[in-house]
Specification:
Length: about 120
């Protein structure tokens, strides 16, 4: 089976697709200043990378949401609830962790099934 690395740099790939599963790197909101706007930006980035991988949010398998401050949980959920496919929600975990940059309030990592190509 072929491993496909999407938008790779010397350090990481935005996604790796193998055996019908897309593994995405963590997505962050780069310009938003609060957790809700950063979540919306991160989810838009996830949509973009999922499309590159040939799939979409209706095929999400799992999601890990990392918050710099757990008190942002409700703000993050407002953006998440507006975005998630309500008929096909993924398994999800949410926790508080120190993020790579102080300006980041949220980072989201997902995996998704990739439909077979015809």
């Amino acid at each position: 089976m072929t491993i496909v690395r999407l938008e790779k740099t010397h350090r990481l790939s935005d996604a790796v697709v193998y055996n019908g599963v897309a593994y995405l790197s963590g997505a962050v909101g780069r310009t938003g200043t609060d957790a809700e706007s950063q979540t919306r930006e991160a989810l838009a980035e996830i949509d973009r990378v999922l499309a590159l991988a040939g799939t979409d949010k209706s095929r999400l398998l799992s999601a890990a949401v990392w918050l710099a401050d757990i008190s942002d949980y409700e703000a993050m959920n407002r953006a998440w609830d507006a975005w998630v496919d309500k008929d096909n929600p993924p398994a999800r975990a949410t926790g508080q962790v120190p993020l790579a940059r102080e300006k980041y309030r949220v980072e989201i990592v997902v995996t998704a099934a990739v439909p077979p190509t015809a």
